[in-house]
Amino acid sequence: MFSDDPFSHLPRTACRTIEMRKGDVLFRQDQTTSGLYRVVSGCVTLQRTGLGGDTLALHRALSGGLFAEASVFSETYHCDAICTEAGSVTKIAKADVKATLQSNPEFSESFTRLLAVQVQHYRAHIELLAIPSAKDRILAAVQAGYFNATITELATRIDLSHEACYRALRALCDDGRVVQTGRGQYSLAQSFRSID
User: In degrees rounded to 5, what are phi and psi of residue 34?
Assistant: First the structure.
């Protein structure tokens, strides 16, 4: 039987908790890799600075989310990891992951399964971003459980302006497909849930 958490197969010394404040940098692009991370609480944004100096957000890791997985097989990090909401992360030592991948088939399979599930989630996110209508994209995001932050953060996550996000949410409420459950909080309408 496979463990729900592949990292339970690692030595206890492989994982270290790091407390973060907003603005803390966990690593920088081109810094030598030393491990991957799991968010315990808070939020970490992976970002890269383009040639023109613009910052591009590549990924937003929330509670339970892994990031810097590629560091296991890379010499340097390919982006910056910035804490955008205070909390903590678990740093998982690269050397221990590599050694356990070779010595423990159960860890190898459970870690591979975890990565495969992440690939599926990333593909689903790319599909969601390809939806041309703001209204349909937001509806898909609400259905997918993306609405766990502010409207501005949701808009950023699904690549819409916050104004377009507000307008589409209002239209979805007017259509009866989404209900406002509180200030800045929305969910699928009961009648729309039963259609699925």
Answer: -135, -10
Identify the CATH number of the domain in which residue 48 sits: 2.60.120.10
Give the SS3 label for residue 109: helix
Q: How many other CB atoms are found less than 10 A from the CB of residue 57?
A: 15
Provide the residue range defining the domain that includes 180.
131-195
74: three-class secondary structure by DSSP: coil
My answer on whether 86 and 141 are in the same domain is no
Q: How confident is the model at residue 179 (pLDDT cuts 50, 70, 90)?
A: confident
Average per-residue pLDDT for the chain? 90
**Residue 144 Cα distances to 28, 93, 140, angstroms:** 31, 32, 6
The pTM (predicted TM-score) of the whole model is 0.77
The amino acid at 159: D
